[in-house]
Design goal:
homodimer, 18% strand, Rossmann fold, 365 residues, DNA-binding
Chain lengths: 365, 365
Amino acid sequence: MAKKIIRIKDIAKAAGVSIGTVDRVLHNRGKVSEDALKKVTAVLKKNEYKPNLIARTLGSNKAYRLVTLLPNPEQDPYWAFTHKGILQAENEWSHYGVSIVTCVFDLQEKKSFEEAAKKVLKLKPDGILIAPIFYKEALPVFKTFFDKAIPYALFNTHIKESNAISFIGQDLYHSGRVAAELICIGQKGPGTFSVLHVDEDLNDSIHLLEKEKGFKDYVNEFYDGHSVIESLNRTSSTDFSFKKRLATLLKKPDLKGIFVSSSRGTATAASFLKSHGKNGIRLVGYDLLEKNVEYLNSGVIDFLIHQKPQQQAFEGISCLVNHLIFKKSPQPINLFPLEVITRQNMPSYQVESINYHPQGTSILN
Amino acid sequence: MAKKIIRIKDIAKAAGVSIGTVDRVLHNRGKVSEDALKKVTAVLKKNEYKPNLIARTLGSNKAYRLVTLLPNPEQDPYWAFTHKGILQAENEWSHYGVSIVTCVFDLQEKKSFEEAAKKVLKLKPDGILIAPIFYKEALPVFKTFFDKAIPYALFNTHIKESNAISFIGQDLYHSGRVAAELICIGQKGPGTFSVLHVDEDLNDSIHLLEKEKGFKDYVNEFYDGHSVIESLNRTSSTDFSFKKRLATLLKKPDLKGIFVSSSRGTATAASFLKSHGKNGIRLVGYDLLEKNVEYLNSGVIDFLIHQKPQQQAFEGISCLVNHLIFKKSPQPINLFPLEVITRQNMPSYQVESINYHPQGTSILN
DNA sequence: GTGAAAGCGCTAACAA
DNA sequence: TTGTTAGCGCTTTCAC
């Protein structure tokens, strides 16, 4: 009944060689004669040999050093979640000999990113997880990783030219579409909609423009009535003209909704809207940051789209672990669902857990 | 730097006993003198010994037989998803010596449930995962499991008196609230809302009434205007009066929304609404069944709440595995988030994956 | 009660 | 180029 498990030993016997030889072909560490190789591979294939990964990690008593490169978690609650996910992952994988070192940089300082990247390399990691939020600065960094043949995974921000083994994050264009959809539900007549970019350098943050594009496309395709879309951005917290421009916007009688393109800006926008008076203006932003949850509960924010920073980081590490330890080739792109948070379903998200498994490459359709 | 890992051997040495003795106290298999026990436990505690679970599963070459009891997957796409999750789980855990046998019963036949339950017992399982959709019939079944000291977990339907080690599913009351919230977005004025129960025996399905309650509570608390809530149920597919009653309902000029309480009924209701003419009547139902996705895409259904049947089943098995193999006490209640599916975010859900980890008890807040 | 020893499937160092 | 062997940390059996 119980189908027998085939061990290396069995393969060796069947092929008429020693287990050492089988091991060598399995890991192609050379030193195998043509003849032996042929025989072993044949037997391997015939029996559909699958290594026991449990035994593998026990046997090779290796330690893996992973390094993550991300914005300083103390600077921003979004990245604090990310960091939490990293710690979680370390905890989960420590049994497999995985240790993680985190290198942080300043969200506003591209220089500090480059310096942190150097630090990463000095640590001689076996794998790297990186949040490449500065496009231009990231490219040469990728190159150094690549040249040293260190596998690296991206999360949060996708850079196609990166050569990374995987990207973990969301589809930003569709994220914008979802935001627009939520803003349009039940609305009619002529409407002004606004996209707010708060404290982001749009030159370097192509990704936010992706969201904007999705937003605009949806409104243009589906909005039931004449619509105008205004884009407003605050370049820094000391950008005083922003307040004025926002005030002007809020005065428009047909303003129907505001979409804030980042988790950081969401609460900022909410506080403006609150003091101005909500007047039925729908507000959609990102993530379950504490402030955002409060504004959602009090009705200032209508919807949040959950980017799951914690889970992204966790998955990022897990991806590297799968690659390094379990030799599973990761999906090149791992897109998270665009989860919609409302006042009523929000509590059900706050107890959510991360669950993982070593051979976690199972994909569902 | 790298903090040393403490093995049984180390504990034994520190306590001045053999590893055999340490093992005995770890698993309290008796045969340990007062004295030794005291010493070992002291050392254990002092060093915060944590067993290497990897080595554990390798060492004890045990096989675990799990059995699941659920409605016939061929009968209903919802349960087909569930079954997929089971297969997935088997695949994931097979490395740890886990095998799973599935026993199915007829959704409409309580008798067949009881018979299937008997079959389950005959298989002498080490653990059981059960979808106890028939309340009254389930109670005695739980008792037989309990009497034989077989650990069992519930999913899909919560029965508080079950004595199960865990329940995996959703909070139905809040599910109803979320549905109501979605139906109310952007609506105003006097409105009739309807809750549809399609093909469910309400006597035995207290859980659907939970959803209805949540729905009603929300509307009464928050709806902006006078509201009437009508509850309609079809007891079987041959309940011809249902069609008439539904037609009457659909004629109401102020009908603003319909909430279908189960995944199965969702497409049925959608087809009715489609042929009647949508007329701005909002429709909220459950799950990403193929038909539902179609109706969502074509605009007949406005929102789906995702119950994640596949993930529920997967988690259920994982819960048992954690309990049996990793000796981790599971959370007694594992509530999934109430995920809102819209036309725009739906595609991002269709590539979703299940990720798991052996020590998967990590909880995030 | 206790300890010694074999073995789980695999890796890696070493001898041949 | 090959085969042998000693572990990895834990379980389990079997003598003492």
